[in-house]
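User: Please fill in residues for this 290-position structure.
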């Protein structure tokens, strides 16, 4: 049993937001479960968003760059349609809803709308979103804004709160501390790192959007460093995310201080990665219990 942000989970392996769509995965896996101890949804915004122009993903040495641009149907369609269908697919698995916004009030509004919706076990605040109100590149890059948004969401809902941070910041410990001060029950470390793949003939980005987010094994040392630094500095639950693709790499993040790990890019290659790692982490059944 793993206790994460007050949630009692069967094991410490989750899916990473936005990488494995439970509804689409049904087509690939049939009735087999994804295996995540809690299912984290793709980040949802107040209004529908089209996302970035294609191409949206590009392979890079050992990993991947994406510029998906957080497309989605908006919160009303999410609550009416996506969430119930997701719950059908994941069964009794607790659902953690990832929320995003362009202002502090967006996050507050989403938290209020999701509070009390059946099947929502916790919220994850994706703070790697541009803040239109203050002109800040990302709420999660600014200590004061991170504190403010977490505090305002905390005052809006009693649901367990996870705050997800970017590794492309100058002081991850100060940002995690701000989230904890604001009332976060756990921090998720990390989102993708800012990256770029460039076309030599045009000098432009290979991807349709401006730059991209680096994920997969090249992100792992950054995630490990963030988890370790936050674990040493703060006594807070941590979801370690970045390049987990095997029992060994999950064990590294757990050894660095993560309470649980989440798997993203590896599921593009093999959607059974989460269940394989979870099974490998499970304590062997004792002879008496068999
Ligand atoms: C295609 C893609 C889409 C993603 N969408 C989201 C998202 O909607 N919200 C979010 O918080 N993180 C999103 N992420 C980041 C992942 O959740 C994760 O933090 C990151 O990919 C690092 O983990 P990994 O190396 O296991 O992929 C996305 C990553 C990828 C590759």
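Assistant: Residues filled in for all 290 positions:
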């Amino acid at each position: 049993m793993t206790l994460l942000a007050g949630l009692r989970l069967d094991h410490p392996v989750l899916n990473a937001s936005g990488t494995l769509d439970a509804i689409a995965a049904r087509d690939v896996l049939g009735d087999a479960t994804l295996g995540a101890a809690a299912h984290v949804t793709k980040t949802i915004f107040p209004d529908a968003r089209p996302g970035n122009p294609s191409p949206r993903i590009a392979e890079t040495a050992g990993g991947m760059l994406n510029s998906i641009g957080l497309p989605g149907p908006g919160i009303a369609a999410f609550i009416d349609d996506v969430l119930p269908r997701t719950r059908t697919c994941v069964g009794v698995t607790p659902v953690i809803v990832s929320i995003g916004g362009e202002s502090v009030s967006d996050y507050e509004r989403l938290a209020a709308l999701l509070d009390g919706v059946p099947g929502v076990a916790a919220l994850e605040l994706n703070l790697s979103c541009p803040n239109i109100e203050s002109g800040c590149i990302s709420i999660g890059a600014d200590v004061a804004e991170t504190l403010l948004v977490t505090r305002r969401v905390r005052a809006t809902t009693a649901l367990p709160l996870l705050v997800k941070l970017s590794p492309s910041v100058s002081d991850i410990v100060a940002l995690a501390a701000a989230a904890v001060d604001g009332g976060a029950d756990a921090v998720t470390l990390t989102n993708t790192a800012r990256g770029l793949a460039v076309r030599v003939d045009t000098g432009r980005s290979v991807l349709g959007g401006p730059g991209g987010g680096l994920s997969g094994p090249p992100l792992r040392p950054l995630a490990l460093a963030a988890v370790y630094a936050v674990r040493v500095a703060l006594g807070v639950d941590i979801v370690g995310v970045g390049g987990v693709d095997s029992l060994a790499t999950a064990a590294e993040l757990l050894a660095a201080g993560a309470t649980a790990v989440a798997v993203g890019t590896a599921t593009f290659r093999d959607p059974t990665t989460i269940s394989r790692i979870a099974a490998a982490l499970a304590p062997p059944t004792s002879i008496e219990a068999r």
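For context: The pocket of flavin mononucleotide is lined by residues 16-19, 42-43, 64, 66, 68, 70, 98, 126, 164, 191-192, 215-216, 219, 241-244, 263-266 (CB under 6 Å).
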